[in-house]
Amino acid sequence: MEDPAWQADAARLYQPLRRMDGTSFAGLVQEEAERLRQLWQTRPWKD
Q1: Burial level of 15, CB count in 10 A (0-12/13-18/19+)?
Q2: How far, CA to CA in Å, does 5 sit from each of 14, 17, 19?
Q3: What is the mean pLDDT of residues 3-30?
Q4: pLDDT tens by residue, 24-43
Q5: Is the pTM value of this prediction over 0.85?
Q6: What is the DSSP string of 1-47?
Q7: In contact, 19 and 1? CB cutoff 8 Å
Q8: Closest CA to 1 of 12, 13, 16
Q9: Which of 43, 40, 22, 9 is nearest to 1 (CA)?
């Protein structure tokens, strides 16, 4: 993540870089999973 060329490519492709350790990433995944479960309850995306 410290490579300036890689950071420039990420910026050019509109890919935000979020530096976090494994524990933080696991928390992010859990939060997003819960957000999607709640969304499913109000607006399911099935046929």
Answers
A1: exposed
A2: 14, 13, 16
A3: 92
A4: 999 999 999 999 999 999 99
A5: no
A6: ---HHHHHHHHHTT-------HHHHHHHHHHHHHHHHHHHHHS----
A7: yes
A8: 16
A9: 9
List Cα–Cα distances, 22 to 3, 4, 8, 9, 43, in angstroms. 20, 23, 24, 24, 31
pLDDT bin (cut points 50, 70, 90) of residue 45 is: confident
How many other β-carbons are positioned within 10 Å of the β-carbon of residue 31?
10
Predicted confidence at residue 47, as pLDDT, reads 60
Type of residue found at 36:
L
Q: Output the six-digit token pair for 34.
A: 């819960």
